[in-house]
Structure formats: structure tokens, C-alpha cells
Amino acid sequence: ALALLVAARSPLGAAQVARLGAPAGIRALVRRGVCAERSEGFVLMREAERADWERRLPRSERFAAHRLFVGLGQQAMAAALSGREQAEALALCAYHHAALGELAQIEPLLSQHEHVAPLAGGRWGDVAARLLEHEVSAPLARALAGLLIEAGSTSLVEPLLAQSSLEGAEKRDLLARARLAAGDASGALALLEHDGAESLGERVTRARVLVRLGRYEEAFDLAHGLLDQAAEGSLDHALLLQSAGTAASYLERTDAAAALLSRAEQALRGQASARELSRTLSLRGIVAHRLGEFAVAERLYREALLVAERAGCDALLARGALNVATACHASG
Prior knowledge:
The protein has 19 helices and two strands. The protein is an all-alpha fold.
């Protein structure tokens, strides 16, 4: 039972304890003062002792506990009723595979479930932290770094990539995207300034950085000029439409902005980025508000907030709620 508590990355609910066959053992640990029962489940009494317990427990016990959690995650994935539940079960499996050193099991899981994986949000930060103990393959680093950026857990991207075999343009682009997501547009641009030829991904990110820096003419020209180079229906193409539309709105080219952002929204509905879909809906709401279409703006803002809530994009919620309130006030 102690090994299960130490291996768990979140409180153990009563139902989980029962499925793991450990109710008696957990109750004994409560009586000994090793763990406590909280409203969210059973937790170690002193969280700071987790690492010490992990060192002291026999390897066989630790690995057996992680193996049980992998099985629990697989069962939860099979029984999941929603994308969010499936994503959280996926992250549970990935975390415990990482703890077991079974990195080869994680990348196929992410590939098979790439459209629901982002819904696990910040849970991917736990997985990344576990992976820092290992050398990470380029495909796994690429997939997990993308999930961290989507979740806003950007501080883990650089150390993760430092442990990986990913190099060159892909690595630079992911690092730049992480800095941009963290609000460091100048730092992102510095990463993109190098002597070699820029990849398409780097140029897509550069357009987004230029928007954030307020260099709207440059951003519009770059993003609009790249549209023919990105495959229609790809995430790159959708992000270029978003950048061009955003720049156009700041340049007061309102009709062009409305058309570009509408196309970006439609393109993003086929992608696994709820964060960017929510942002694009909000941007469309801003344009509608400027056009005096207050009811349309309110509808778009509400949908943007709903998308962010469902995907666990907590960083977008406060601004989203403010947008809805502003639109309601404007429409009376």
C-alpha cells in the first residue's frame, strides 16, 4: 500500500484504492500516521518525504506499484465516456510508463490518441518531469513538447529538449514557441535569428512573434505570403490564417481580418489545439465587436470560453469571462 501511495502522482480516491486491492493497507497507513484521508482522496501525510520513501522502497515494490497504475490507466481509457477522461487516463499510463523507464511505450500512445491528448492539460507536466531522468527520443520529445506548450507548462520544454536527440530547426521552433507561449516574444525572436535557412515551422512561429511584438505590417506580409507554402488543412496553415487575420485587425483592415479569422476557425476545428481555437474565436469576437455586431461578438466569446473550459486551458478563462461580460454590457 505504501508503494502505491508513493507511486501515485495525485490523491488516491476510495474507488481507485478498491480497484488496486489496497483498502486494508491504506487504512493501516492512516492509523500509523503515514497517510491522511482528505476530501480529494488519500495522500502522504508529509509530501516532502515522497522522494525519500521512493529511495527507500525496494525497486521490485516500486515497479509493481507503477505496473498496477498502468493497468488502471488502460482500464480507464477503455471505459472513458469523454475525451477528457480518456486523455487523463492516457496521461496516467504515460506517467507510469515513464517511471518504469518504458519510454518506447509512450510515443505510440500519444500518436494513437493525438486528438484527445491535449485535454489532459497540465498533467503532461508530471510526465515530462519524470522523463527528465532519461534520454528522450526525437519523436517523443516533439510530441510531449507540443503538449506542454498547448497546456501552458512551458518551463519544462527546454529541459525536456535538452534530454532529447531532437536538434536543428525543429528544436529551435519548439523552444521559440515555448517562449512565445510564456509571454517572451523577444526571446522567441532571438531564437529564430540564426545564419541557416528558416524552416516553414520557424517562419510560421516568426509571424506569430511579429504579431505579439506589434509589428503588424511585417506579420501580415509574412503570414499571408506563406499561405501557399503550408498544406491546406494543416496546423501551420491554420496558424498562418490566424496571424494574418490578427495583424489585419490591428491594421484596421476589418473585412480582411473577419474573412481570414473565419477561415482560421474552420481550419482549427480539425486540429488538436483547443487553445488556438479558443484564441481564434476570441479574435473573431473582437472583430465583430469593432463592426458593431455585439450579438455575434457575444456568441463567439461564449464559445471561446466554453472551448477553453472543456480543454482545461485555465490561462484563457479569466480573459474569456471578461470578454463575455464586455459583450453583454455592449449589447445591453
